[in-house]
Amino acid sequence: MDKFRIQGGPRLNGKVQVSGAKNAALPCLAATLLTCEPVEIAGTPRVRDIVTMEKVLQALGESCQHRAEVTRVVTGTGEAFWAPYELVRTMRASVLVLGPLVARRRRARVALPGGCAIGARPVDLHLAALERMGAELRVEHGDIVAEAPRGLHGADITFSKVTVTGTENVLMAATLARGRTVLRNCAREPEVGDLAALLVAMGAHISGAGSPTIEVEGVEGLHGASHRVIPDRIEAGTYLIAGALCGDRVTVDRCRPEHLGALLEVLEAAGASCSVGVDSIAVGRPPILRPVTIATTEFPGFATDLQAQLVALMTQAEGVSEVTEAIFENRFQHALELMRLGARIEVTGRTARICGPTSLTGATVMASDLRASAALVLAALVARGETVVDRIYHLDRGYEAMESKLGALGAAIERFNPGPYR
Ligand code: UD1
Q: Is pLDDT of 116 > 90?
């Protein structure tokens, strides 16, 4: 199993280029199921979640070809409809194929995602919405079975809770439903707007994506298209936090500053002033890092996917920070591992109280989920001595070439594999 070995201490300096957004590429890949024509998606990062989604598409009869950073997806016979558990259990976002499958192939069998490291994460809202659109649903042998022999129809749907992949799943289904669909209380994350941009390029009639209410006028069929996914705001945010933690000056290049507003406000509040360009942001470690009090919320608020990394940063702030996780109920597993490095963190319910600054010391730590892994890497950059981060397969799900990107900034980081059973 691969691990990272990191020697803490070096200051980071230079430019890092952000990859395409994993969470935008995933629904865009699922959307290729809505047409029989080839779809080209540029900027798909080479990370494990994308490979998993490609395997799901292959199980559904599609083929994915790669040319440089463009993924071209070609549909086969269009008859397969089963996304098996072996794939879905490794990535919950596989459920994104449910909406497109039932909309176009009129039936779908998608393994019900089980529990996950950061919380219960049910998909009840996806299912309730598809049911309102005429899909007949049942759970059979651990799979969601959805059938709509006469096709889906439009509906007026209010999500009782904001859900990103739920909004995306139902938005895709609505593009081919008969009549008009109105989706209310939608996720406003930039990845939803990006998916809508691809769907519109494929011939869908959508208005309001990026706002709480999205309206879709169903069409008979969609055609092929080419699309470039937006830059990964979470990857960008992770490197900005690295810059605030131990950067002389780290420039995060090819990002969209308008997607990072909440993080920039928090970094400013912490004393790290950011120079914002058109598609780049530069930041360095301030002389005094100040504590912050924040709560994660849906976009445009502070992203839950940056919470763990912020906690790592706050271990170095001078005073007590409070970070509340409002989206997922069990997303502080990084706290215990950070404490192995010497951090002083107290988790009560959904709030972590971080007392800084602490002088961290290297240790062997275990990654528990994607973003928790990133937090451990960040902390290791400022820990005295050597840190080994185990189970970085979590990190490989969503960060492209993290060791090369951090290495180019001056971090002493290497990937190694001690062999089986270790
Ligand atoms: C997406 C992102 C993930 C991010 C999360 C929140 C992708 C592939 N993943 O995950 O990185 O952390 O948004 O920004 O884009 N919920 C329900 N019922 C449902 C659906 C969701 O109760 O049917 C709850 C969840 O348990 C959670 C909250 O709603 O508490 C938000 O989850 P959701 O936005 O759906 O997260 P994902 O789309 O899975």
A: no
